[in-house]
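The records we work with from here on pair a chain with its fold. The integers have meaning only within a learned vocabulary of local backbone shapes. A complete example follows; check for yourself that the lines match position by position.

:::
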Amino acid sequence: MKAQRIDGKQISDQIKEEAAQEASALREKGIVPCLAVVLVGNDPASAVYVNNKKKACEKVGIVSRSYELPEDTEENALLQLIEELNMDKSVHGILVQLPLPPQINEKKVILAIDAQKDVDCFHPFNVGLVQTGEKGFLPCTPAGVLELIERSGYTISGKRCVVIGRSHNVGKPIAMLLLQKNGTVTICHSKTQDLTGICKEADILVSAVGKLHTVTADMVKPGAVVIDVGINRNEDGKLCGDVDFDAVSEVAGAISPVPGGVGLMTVAMLMKNCITAAKLQNHIVS
């Protein structure tokens, strides 16, 4: 029996609808949620991501302000713009699209964003809140992974969870959020020995590597939930993930596709964070 296909579009649409209702409630209080999106340079993939975020804002009822700066923008000019946005009380969220051109230090830029407006959840203060389980922003992609699992009807508590990948923005926070949901979590990476054996024990298997066919059918426990965070292109130029989707679908109990899975959730969770930011800055407790 083939695995259940986890529908990222349906679930992300639910989350955006919930955010739209909250945005409407804020507007009734005279608060207009606003996201400032800063794009430096002309990276085509970044331009697509920014456009998707603008469309989502429009759908949810969040005002989106766009700042498109040339490729040769100096670091100080970007930091000055961020400071202006930090001081602007009508702006609730600031998102600087990464990667940045080489003359700009990404760490400096992340640190410059007011932690209360850091809707990407990259600032060390917000990363710390995630580690300690305090209320605040959740990193968009990791939080989207959790929503995909739970809204598809699967329980994390007590389950053996394996995360392949240990990046600061995806792998590590996914592991932390699964742990907070009482999963028993193992993080695997390029130096892990017996990757197949470890993955085979997972009730929930998440791959966040960015490498084709990282997860093959022989690595998957029958009936496991498999979430594919990878974004790759195959030899035909077709968008696909880390997981050998067709083969793994014959073994897993549920699987998220690429495209149509985690990517859609990332934007939905960003909308949720924008609403959280507007509430935080207006001292509204939910």
